[in-house]
Design brief:
Its EC number is 6.3.5.7. It is an enzyme of class 6 (ligase). The chain has 503 residues and is an alpha/beta fold. It has one domain (2-268, 279-304, 399-501): Amidase signature (AS) enzymes. Helices cover 40% and strands 12% of the residues. The chain contains 17 helices and eleven strands. It has helices spanning 2-6, 10-19, 24-42, 52-64, 107-114, 157-164, 181-187, 221-231, 249-256, 280-295, 311-326, 346-357, 360-373, 379-400, 424-428, 435-440, 470-488, and strands spanning 45-48, 76-80, 118-123, 170-175, 190-193, 213-218, 266-270, 299-303, 405-409, 444-451, 458-464. An eleven-stranded mixed sheet has the order 1-3-2-4-6-5-10-11-9-7-8, sandwiched between helices. The radius of gyration is 21 Å and the shape is globular. It starts with a helix and ends in a 15-residue tail after the last helix.
Length: 503
């Protein structure tokens, strides 16, 4: 029975819970058992909740009493460790916050609790969300359930791996340059980065405040939409939060699954995105998806985005600059790690603490960002990067004047082996297709498009839409998902040799 439960989508679990066929305690315990069985191999979780069954039992009591509950009430949830929680440690994958207990919940966590979702635990991540492989966690790497010798993507590899390994039906992630979408690409899952300001960042440990966005991770487009409906909307605690009447994303996904939206849909393909830089199997899967869309009425249109090629360079000036400012709060004085230096000054203690508490990638980006903001270099580096950002935003505006969505491969390659990529620049280039959406603040979604013929590993296709058109993404993604799943004869994860066949 547990094996059947963990294979259910969040929408299917919701239906079983509402009908009384299944209790939240049963669903929660099944996922806790799965974590106990496989997470020593996957290492998706940094902390597993001790209260999950208690919370689930309370949901069951409320349901039995006749209380009207939300659609996802009783469904288990994994939470990326970048989001603070009152009942579990919040470390952002860093030693400098080891054991830190927050006095408040992140807004998205509070909303998930209010909707009756059951937190299972906190998931692993690259330290302070700096990475594309979850190899930079201070607590050890997460492994891809498709092949335990490979990376699960980053920075949110823990959330994606937990969902792919059936250790959670849905998860919360954050996306600063692709940290939801790129892990989805390499694990055969679904991930959406919302419009900037569409989901509250209050309680998300900041990396780059003009780029960070919280979003959903799942195995189906509908499940992401259902979770997005819970966590989205205006939050007065977040000064960047949009005051906007968002439509139902779940309704958009359900409408899209019928496929009518594809007739006459104009899908843009960026002519400047270098096909030569993508693995052959990734490009082939992408082209096959475009052909499938065209066969069902979509029009594939070449669009120009001449400044996308500068996106990675601009991003890796803007992000480190903002990170160097945001991480200045970790000073050994107010909270977190403190390394005492006998007879030393406050500056000595601060330096020793940061040296011990921050990993190499974090130090690299802090140094780069501090340099880019320094006197005499601000205009040449940070200022110039912001100008490129504006040009990329204009590229999007021009493209969306002629197409409904833009499609790209989500990332250039399938999951590479742990330890295989040592050059930081090569690692950064993994986000070449995802970074522009963060620079422009537009929404993007990745869903599985197939398996690469090169190595049999998952490949994702990314759709981008104009700001505030997240619902359009859910409709288009759900339409393609329905076609793909039908052609495969079932979900892509049914074809995965997950953990040697252990289900």
């Amino acid at each position: 029975m547990s094996e059947e439960i963990i294979r259910l989508s969040a929408a299917e679990l919701s239906g079983a819970l509402a009908s009384g066929e299944l209790s939240s305690v049963e669903a929660t315990q099944a996922h806790l058992d799965r974590i106990a069985d496989v997470d020593a191999d996957v290492h998706a979780y940094l902390h597993v909740s001790e209260r999950a069954v208690e919370v689930a039992a309370d949901i069951d009591r409320r349901r039995v009493s006749g209380e009207k509950l939300s659609e996802l009430a009783g469904v288990p949830l994994a939470i990326k460790d970048v989001l603070v929680t009152t009942d579990m440690p919040s470390t952002s994958g860093s030693r400098i916050l080891e054991g830190f207990m927050s006095p408040y919940d992140a807004t998205v966590v509070a909303r998930a609790r209010a909707a009756g979702l059951v937190p299972l635990g906190k998931t692993n991540m690259d330290e302070f969300a700096m990475g594309s492989s979850t190899e930079h966690s201070a607590y050890g790497p997460t492994h891809n359930p498709w092949d335990l010798d490979r990376i699960p993507g980053g920075s949110g590899g823990g959330s994606a791996a937990a969902v792919a390994a059936f250790e959670a039906p849905v998860a919360l992630g954050s996306d600063t340059g692709g940290s939801i979408r790129q892990p989805a690409h390499v694990t055969g899952t679904v991930g959406l980065k919302p419009t900037y300001g569409g989901v509250s960042r209050y309680g998300a440990i900041a990396l780059a405040s003009s780029l960070d966005q919280v979003g959903p991770v799942s195995r189906t487009v509908l499940d992401s939409a259902l979770l997005h409906d819970v966590i989205g909307g205006h939050d007065p605690h977040d000064s960047t939060s949009l005051e906007y009447a968002w439509p139902s994303f779940a309704a958009a996904a359900r409408d899209g699954a019928r496929g009518d939206i594809l007739k006459g849909l104009r899908v843009g393909v960026i002519s400047e995105l270098p096909d030569s830089g993508f693995q052959a199997g990734v490009s082939a899967s992408f082209r096959a998806s475009l052909d499938l869309l065209a066969a069902h009425g979509a029009e594939i249109v070449d669009v120009s985005a001449p400044h996308f090629e500068y996106g990675v360079a601009a991003y890796y000036l803007i992000l480190p600059a903002e990170a160097s400012s945001n991480l200045a709060k970790f000073d050994s004085v107010r909270f977190g790690l403190r390394v005492d230096v006998p007879g030393g000054t406050v500056e000595d203690v601060m330096a020793a603490t940061r040296d011990a508490g921050f990993g190499d990638e974090v130090k690299r980006r802090i140094i780069l960002g501090t340099y880019a903001l320094s006197a005499g270099y601000y205009d040449a580096y940070y200022g110039s990067a912001q100008k490129v950002r504006t040009l990329i935003q204009r590229d999007f505006d021009t493209a969306f004047a002629s197409v409904d969505v833009i499609a790209t491969p989500t990332a250039p390659t399938t999951a590479f082996r742990l330890g295989e990529v040592e050059d930081p620049l090569q690692m950064y280039l993994n986000d070449v297709a995802t970074i522009p959406a963060n620079l422009a603040g537009v929404p993007g979604i990745s869903l599985p498009s197939g398996l690469s013929a090169d190595d049999g590993l998952p490949v994702g296709i990314q759709f981008l839409a104009p700001a505030r058109e997240d619902a359009r993404l859910y409709s288009v993604a759900a339409a393609l998902e329905a076609l793909l799943v039908d052609s495969w004869g079932g979900p892509i994860l049914d074809r995965a040799p997950i953990l040697g066949g252990r289900a």
